[in-house]
Every structure is written in structure tokens, then in C-alpha cells.
Design brief:
18 strands, four-stranded mixed β-sheet, alpha+beta, single chain, about 20% strand, T-fold, 10 helices, nine-stranded antiparallel β-sheet, globular
Length: about 450
């Protein structure tokens, strides 16, 4: 049997008080999360180092009663000594720590004091055991990112190393981001169909993206930027674009009209717009890992760039890292299970990451390059794992799988495994029935809570 299938054990129950939030409420809560994250980042040392606890979001603790007015008390789940669970492949820092009531200054102060109290509790707890490794958090690539150094190099040195790695991340973001003025991608998009001189790294990412485009039959296409621009998934009151506007932008989508030569890129269609969002974050995670190893001599670390995780070495001798896989549409409050990896990358993509609802229709950010609308897929999430150094490749593969749907995605994964046997690629697909299909080498340890 090629695949291991796990069906949903039981329907997830919602509390009697639960009510489906409106699109406006969802987006307001996202904005509050950003404000909460900003507040956390201003906490003085040692408190700001305690929130991730080796990149363990607070979503993993179940304790403290109703937790001061949070309606996500159910999302706090204990993992033994607080050190048994290392990372989440798809959790963003502080993601589930959002209040259910409007964010205001009195609440912010209350939250600030409560977090400091929690930090003190955790410091006391970890003081009795192994000290938590130094960790740095930064906002980049449109998400909260975290780097944790496990090498015994001293706290100050480790923090400095992590900060240097973040500089590498920002440097590459300035090359590959569509929204950074003057980036390579921005200059290509503004070129009006003329050759643009770009870095070798930008060319490498475009070539990688085109490779996945070719192998996926064109469902993954980085020239979808003009269509992406029509959809505002972050606004306070997002709406689906007019169909006529989408139809006008669709002819610009065709990865086959990207021309690449040494040192330069040309978009044959002057209206085309590159958007490397489906591959760049993974590529940047690989570069950060490479920097830590080759430039700073780090042997053990975890890089968490939102849905892209890279682990260096093992957590301890003969002890792998444990990566959590989020259950879709649970607001980062539940995991399906965990996988154990060493010197590896784990990438998760899902239709739940950015979406809004309008007139009873859920619109998500995985757009079909053929229609310009969110793809109608039977999948909610895809997790891909492979050897270290393949995060960019896995990033593109995971997005392509969502676009293909379960059956075609399994064929695609099988093709990738045949053609690239040395990268150790494995996959888990979660469909809309909450059933899970994983390749034989994935080995998910399923969570006891369903």
C-alpha cells in the first residue's frame, strides 16, 4: 500500500456559546493579533524570550482557568514539562493568543501584566530543569518569525547569531518581495516587458518556481501577481473582485512567458506581474539555515518562518525535533499530530491561512491561475517534509498540491519522489472531511485529542 489513510475519528464539537464569526469579526481579530504581537515584542528581557519557549506558542498550554477573559481557554494544552513539544510547522507566533473582546488600552495593560506574570511562572518552572535556549523573534515575510539557537555558545552570543540570521532574512526579503520597492521582483514588474538585471538568487528562485510549474501542469504559476493584487485578504472589509476585472487580468498569467538568461529576467507580457510568495519564504528559510551553519558554525537550531520550519541537527544527541501539524480552521488551537525530524524542513500550506467570507461563500488565498478565483479543492492543508535545504522546493510543492486536489496531488507527490529520490520528500494531505492521507515515510504521531 502506497499511502496510509486516517479517517476522522469523530466530529469536533463546538461549545454551546460558539457562534460562527463574520468576516469583519475575523479580520478585526487578525488586526488585534498584530497589535498583541507588537506588544509582546516590546517586553523587556528576560520576558520577551519566554513567549516562544523554544518556539512553542502559548497555544500549547491548557491551564489557568478562563485565563482572564480569553475565549480560547480550550487552546491551552499542556505538554509535560513545557519542553516536550518543540515547534509548530504552521503556527505563527502568538497566533491563538487573541482576545475575544475589542482590543483597547486597558485590556492591553491587563494583557501585558498577565503575560509578565506567566513569564515569571515559566521562568520559575524552567529554572528547576534544563534552561530554555536563547531565542529571537522578528516580524518579517509578513509573519512573526523565530530563530532558536540550541548550541551551547552563551546566551548573548546565541542572540547575536540569531539577530545576524534575521539580517540575512531581511536582505533576501528585499530581493524577492513583490511589495518592497526596489526589490528585484518589483523592478521586474515595473520593467514594462524589458530585460531587468537581477541577482543570481532571484534567478534561482524563478527557475525553481518554473520547474514546479512545469511538473504540476501549470497549476503553480508565479506570474499570477496581477490577479493576486485584485484580492485583499487583509483588509477590514474584504470583498471578491468584480469578475470582469479578474477576466481582464487573467491573460497576464503564464509562467511560460518568463524568459531567464544569465543575470537577467524578461516578462514577455508587459502586463504580467511576478509574485514569488509561494516559494520565496522557503528559499529564504534555506538561506538562513545555510548562514547559521556555514557563517556562524551553528549545529543545532530551529528556524520558524510561519508555515516554514527548518531544523538543524538534532535537539539532543539521538533525540529528534518534534514538529506539530496544525488542524485546519481551529485558529491555531489544535494539532492533528506531530512528526519527528532531524536536519530537515517542514512546510505547511492551507486554505485556512488567509480567507474571508462574503454572502455565505468562503474565499481563500490559494488562487487558481486558470480562473483567478480561489481554487475549488477538496484539500484544506498540505504538509511537506524533506531533507534540510529543500524548504523552497517544498514550499512550491505544498501550494501545488492544494491546487491539484487530493487525487492529483498524490500522483504529483509520487512523481516528485521518483524524480528526486535523494531529497527525502514526504507528504500529508488533510481534506475537507478532516481525513488524512500520508505517504509511507511521513509517520505522523496523531494527537490524542480529536
Amino acid at each position: 500500500m502506497r499511502y496510509i489513510v486516517r479517517q476522522k475519528p469523530a466530529a469536533r464539537k463546538k461549545s454551546a456559546e460558539w457562534k460562527k464569526p463574520t468576516a469583519r469579526e475575523k479580520n478585526a481579530e487578525k488586526n488585534r493579533r498584530g497589535e498583541v504581537s507588537a506588544l509582546f515584542s516590546k517586553l523587556p528581557s528576560p520576558f520577551n524570550k519566554c513567549f516562544a519557549l523554544s518556539s512553542k506558542p502559548f497555544a500549547h498550554f491548557r491551564a489557568f482557568g478562563s485565563f482572564g477573559g480569553f475565549n480560547h481557554a480550550a487552546s491551552f494544552k499542556a505538554f509535560g514539562s513545557f519542553r516536550d513539544f518543540n515547534h509548530s510547522a504552521s503556527f505563527k507566533a502568538f497566533g491563538s493568543f487573541a482576545p475575544s473582546h475589542p482590543f483597547n488600552k486597558p485590556f492591553a495593560l491587563k494583557l501585558f501584566l498577565m503575560i509578565m506574570l506567566m513569564a515569571a511562572i515559566i521562568i520559575t518552572h524552567t529554572a528547576c530543569g534544563k534552561k530554555e535556549p536563547p531565542s529571537q523573534i522578528d516580524f518579517c515575510l509578513d509573519t512573526s518569525c523565530q530563530i532558536t539557537i540550541y548550541d551551547d555558545v552563551g546566551e548573548g552570543t546565541a542572540e547575536g547569531i540569531a539577530q545576524d540570521a534575521f539580517q540575512e532574512i531581511h536582505k533576501h526579503e528585499k530581493l524577492l518581495s513583490k511589495t518592497v520597492s526596489g526589490s528585484d521582483v518589483d523592478r521586474i514588474n515595473q520593467s514594462g516587458g524589458t530585460w531587468t538585471d537581477v541577482s543570481e538568487e532571484t534567478i534561482a528562485v524563478i527557475n525553481m518556481a518554473n520547474e514546479i510549474s512545469e511538473k504540476s501542469g501549470g497549476v503553480f504559476d508565479v506570474t499570477i501577481g496581477a490577479v493576486n493584487d485584485l484580492w485583499d485578504f487583509k483588509g477590514e472589509n474584504p470583498k471578491a473582485p468584480d469578475s470582469a476585472v479578474i477576466a481582464k487580468a487573467l491573460p497576464s498569467v503564464d509562467y511560460r512567458r518568463i524568459k531567464v538568461e544569465e543575470g537577467g529576467v524578461l516578462l514577455e507580457n508587459p502586463s504580467a506581474q511576478l509574485d514569488l510568495g509561494g516559494v520565496a519564504k522557503g528559499y529564504i528559510a534555506d538561506r538562513a539555515a545555510e548562514f547559521l551553519e556555514e557563517e556562524r558554525g551553528v549545529d543545532r537550531a530551529v528556524i520558524n518562518l510561519g508555515g516554514n520550519v527548518v531544523v538543524l541537527g538534532e535537539k539532543d544527541e539521538k533525540t529528534p525535533w518534534v514538529i506539530g501539524i496544525e488542524r485546519p480552521f481551529t485558529d491555531r488551537t489544535e494539532i492533528i499530530g506531530t512528526i519527528e525530524v532531524s536536519d530537515a524542513t517542514v512546510v505547511t500550506s492551507g486554505i485556512y491561512e488567509r480567507n474571508f467570507e462574503e454572502n455565505g461563500v468562503l474565499y481563500h488565498h490559494i488562487l487558481d491561475p486558470k480562473t483567478g478565483y480561489p481554487v475549488e479543492t477538496d484539500l484544506e492543508a498540505v504538509t511537506i517534509t524533506a531533507k534540510k535545504g529543500q524548504s523552497g522546493f517544498c514550499d512550491a510543492v505544498s501550494t501545488a498540491c492544494l491546487l491539484l486536489g487530493k487525487e492529483r496531488a498524490l500522483q504529483f507527490i509520487e512523481q516528485i519522489q521518483r524524480e528526486y529520490p535523494d531529497i527525502g520528500l514526504e507528504a500529508a494531505l488533510i481534506d475537507k472531511n478532516d481525513d488524512i492521507v500520508q505517504t509511507k515515510g511521513m509517520h505522523i504521531q496523531f494527537s490524542g485529542k480529536e
